[in-house]
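Worked problem 6 (solution included).
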Amino acid sequence: MARQIAMVMDLNKCIGCQTCTAACKSMWTDEPGQNHMLWNNVETKPGDGYPKNWEKNGGGWAKDGTINPGIIPNPADYGSICDTNAQEVYFDGEEKVLGRKESMEYGPNWNEDSSVGEYPNNYHFYVPRICNHCTNPTCLEACPVRAIYKREEDGIVLIDQDRCEGHRECNKACPYDKIYFNMATKTSQKCIFCFPRLEEGIPPACATQCPGRLRFIGYLDDENGPIHKLVYKWKVALPLHEEYGCEPNVFYVPPILPPTFDEKGNISKEPRVPIEYMESLFGKGTKYALKTIEAEMKKKEAGKDSELMDLLISKDWKALFGIPDVKLM
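Solution. The predicted structure is:
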């Protein structure tokens, strides 16, 4: 494979606004059978995620090189569409209070802003998720009709809609549950990394619409680009659940939350998020990444130069996108 396009998301800048989700949804999944699909979603961690409990559904590679048996999420795990009485309230004047027309038991934002732990040291943070366009994708290996493939020019993983026969083995094999089944077309569908935009030199919609400028786009082998520097040079961008063995090409800069407080209300040295939980998401490189970020922050505060901080701050919007002749829309 010639090259691999990748994404880094700086979780220290994600505010959970769901602008990326709305940008993706409005552009790609507004056709019949796609109501439940959020190719991009933003989860509150710790939380059940979307679909519900996706981290417990199996998939990925087993230690012996076989695919770990996975399950297909139930429709209820995606949650129902929230239908409100907006028309009646705002336009017809028939009701005074805006609300749901029917009760919901789960939805993609069900755990949003829900903290864990005891006040004042409770915590939560946001994790945006898309298809990881893995280097070693189990979805590709599991497909019995070879409808899934990686593009030679950029490593983007796609599903050939003409070849897909709806066996749903890819749904079982993906440990991130980022492949969806369209009941109208009887085919599996997923994030395409906005490849039609990339071919025109335009970054994915989720990245350009992000108000926090937290998404970096580029090629892993571009040593002067943001991805290579964050993943390989500074080693602060880490894969999500690398233990699944799929070698994902979406990476995360782990969050540094405010300090904790002791019983007297003084700042404590105890981390707000247990390092064990952070490592369960981002692996053993988490400690090194957090220490590196903290050290570079102190350098910047002292008035010294820091390439890492300049890169993460991203004062120049185009610095986020290591794409030749990038165009911003």
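Discussion: The longest strand covers residues 5-10.
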